[in-house]
Amino acid sequence: MNIKLKKSLAMQEKAKKLIPGMTQLLSKRPDQFSLGVWPGYYSKAKGVEVWDLDGNRYVDMSIGGIGANVLGYADPDVDSAVVEAIRNGSSCTLNCPEEVELAELLCELHPWAGMVRYARTGGEAMAIAVRIARAHTGKDKIAFCGYHGWHDWYLSANVGTGNALGGHLLPGLNPCGVPKALAGTSYPFRYDHLEELEKIVKEHGKDLGVIVMEAVRKAEKPADGFLDGVRALADKTGAVLVVDEISSGFRMNTGGAHLVLGLKPDIAVFSKAIGNGYPIAAVIGKADIMQSAQKTFISSTCWTERTGPAAAIATIRKHKAVNAGKHLMSIGQKVRNGWEECAVRHGMNIEIAGMYPMSHFTFKHEKHLSLKALLVQWMLEKGFLASTSFYAMYAHKEEHVSLYLDAVDQVFAKISDAIKDNKIDEQLVGLPSTAGFKRLT
Ligand SMILES: Cc1ncc(COP(=O)(O)O)c(C=O)c1O
Predict the structure, then answer these.
(1) What span, in angstroms and rounded, lies between the C-alpha atoms of 65 and 147?
(2) Which end of the chain has the lower number of beta carbons within 10 A, N or C?
């Protein structure tokens, strides 16, 4: 490697001893990239630039804070709203008015919704949505599609089934610690496979209280009739339809992707992008359903702090003013086209998927995890945080994309040579990437 990572790697070793699994988020674990070369820690981030602990500077063409930093790092407008909230006291005995202003803003953007509750992270907001839906319908069973976080209601699908969640973004999620009594309470169906939801309804319809799905995770349109079919099955069974917009929201438009797709939720859940990295999550829904939050107990101290809603108001207003959705779509499309052209030029077989602003590809090769690690390693040497996923930020400009694609072109050439010469693993400085969830030792 032509870069020094001494302090970054030392911090990782120390962290492994103090924090089980090293980090709080699987997607930020260095082994997801290449353990031994991925810097793992940052000292500063601004716009699209990131500095690691050893002072190396990178342009971030990877996961943009795993989709949280939709505008870019340390956005001046969002930060000044947060600084003002801090100067005026970010927490107090009384409530902050920003949460009312944000509720108004979210309901303006989503006129079908009448009320809003808040949390600070996506997974807990999904747990709130599921609790409200169960409280409203009085029925326990859940049909779901996609990834929804770490909570018991979701992981319970893997209890006694081995790997029911395997087809929903993250394979290998171990439900250890989830009560075995929850087995048989949540059932997965795949996107575009209405027949799978129909089967769940046939078998469990009378106990089905909630249907949960991600709005979208691909660039192509949903299959004809799928979204209307899901809505019709929710109406038929009386289940509350919860649309998870934690990743899809504020990527293609200012608001939920369901607005663009024509999907009609009862509840929608946002986090990540709405705070540009500051912790905030919102559960929005039809007023009569949201009122069921009062039938049960949903309450937490730090859900009332001020920086989250202050950041969300500033992020959403800026997102709308600059039409960030249009920019993210265009940048994402350019990156994807570039991947495709580089792969063709160097005779490599890759498979691209995801929404345009949240795209990823897989090397179609038996050593794809080693090839991914080589890509990470050689892109770092060229000054980019990069892997096989790209999350667009408003701060990404065309010049970043063209410099990045020049580097990808050169690195794909080297990877193609490594494949031809059968010299993949011997060129790795770090370890092959890890796929999905595994214990970190
Ligand atoms: C669609 C979706 N739902 C839920 C979550 C969980 O959100 P968080 O990581 O904030 O708990 C994620 C995170 O990636 C997500 O993409």
Answers:
(1) 18
(2) C
